[in-house]
Amino acid sequence: MLIRYLLPLLAIIGFGLGVLTVMRGNQPVKVAAPVAQPSDSPFNHFIAGSGIIEAKNRNILIGSALPGLIKTLHVTVGDQVLKNDLLFTIDDRDILAILDIRKADLERARAGVKEAEALQRQADILLKLAESVEDRRAISQEDLEQRRNNVLINNARILSQKAQVQQAESQLAQVMTTLERLKVRAPADGQILQVNIRPGEFAQAGPVAQGQGSSPLLVMGNLHQLHVRVDIDENDVWRFNPKGDALAYLRGNRDMSTPLTLAYVEPYVVPKRSLTGDSTERVDTRVLQVLYEYDPSQLKAFVGQQLDIFIEVPDGRESTSTISQPLSAP
Fold first, then answer.
1. Are 121 and 158 in contact (CB under 8 A)?
2. By the 8 A CB rule, do 214 and 73 touch?
3. Distance between CA atoms of 202 and 100, rounded to whole angstroms?
4. CA-closest candidate to residue 122, choices 133, 190, 130
5. Which residues pair with residue 194 across a beta bridge?
6. pLDDT tens digits in sequence order for the chain, 330 residues long
7. Cα separations in angstroms, 3 against 10, 12, 179
8. C-alpha dihedral sign at 86, 92, 95, 97
9. Cβ contacts of residue 256 below 8 Å, gap of 6+?
10. Across the strands, what pairs with 72?
């Protein structure tokens, strides 16, 4: 009797739950509020682009000309360095051993020159004694010729020993050059931005590039004046006006902005490398890279940070580009 009324009751409850689920599913999904409001252009007609902050002399990627273990690291992140300041040293024990050998070779070659010069003086004395004899019967012609040949041989020996000295000096200079190459120095004044090595780690030699599977050993740059590298899509290049105003917004906070001043244009359109992560962003495009500068005191940002850039363009469809003007970097 209980089962007779229980099954219809369960069916009614299931039907009600199904209707409730359908009603809830048909309601519009609320769009989540963005974490930060996007930046708005202050210009009526503009070109929008993504910019990356970099040092004025570009970010210098420091590598090593020779491979080896890092012996000493002389800098840390944030240090101010001057040109030719020591950054790090690679293990030089094997080169120092070769240096001692080269120094010994040089001393031996110089001693050989002195020995050859002494033999030369002796040969000259013997030849003068033989030539000073008035009675030719007292000395044979063969002996006289032999002494003359000894003078010539000793002259050639002196030249040979001097050549060995030059060779030893060159080999010593080569070792000294290699020893100096193991000491990596700052190529310019700047600040250490990144350190990717530690004492005892092995430093690979060869070219380094960020974002290409290998990291530079050190990154440095001059932060007294910062540049913003803006990528302008090749479809908008014809609209770009170097004389137009430009404004940069800090990504994530549109209340923080600063005006930009054109520094120079790199008039070579390159494949796009800087990706913003936008799902609608094209990667198979080429961009014109424009460098702007700004006052770091007006915008607190870090090197490598992205900015939203808006560049004013004149109204109309006519081309206003004057990139052919001398705007390239000095």
1. no
2. no
3. 25
4. 130
5. 219
6. 566 667 677 777 777 777 777 777 776 767 666 666 777 788 888 888 889 998 887 889 998 989 999 999 999 999 999 999 999 999 999 999 999 999 999 999 999 999 888 888 888 887 787 777 766 666 777 777 787 888 888 888 889 999 999 999 999 999 999 999 999 999 999 999 999 999 999 988 876 655 444 688 999 988 888 899 999 988 888 888 888 899 999 888 878 888 999 999 988 888 887 665 555 556 678 889 999 998 888 888 888 888 999 999 887 554 444 444 444 454
7. 10, 14, 96
8. positive
9. 249, 250, 299, 300
10. 89
Phi, psi of 52, deg, nearest 5:
-125, 135
* Residue 31, both tokens: 């769009």
In one letter, which amino acid is 279? S
CA atoms within 13 A on the CB side of 8: 4
Q: Kindly calculate the radius of gyration of the chain based on its CA atoms and give it in whole angstroms.
A: 39
Strands 253-271 and 246-250: antiparallel
pTM score: 0.67
CB burial of residue 305 (10 Å; 0-12, 13-18, 19+): middle
Q: Do residues 50 and 306 lie in contact, with contact meaning Cβ atoms separated by under 8 Å? A: yes
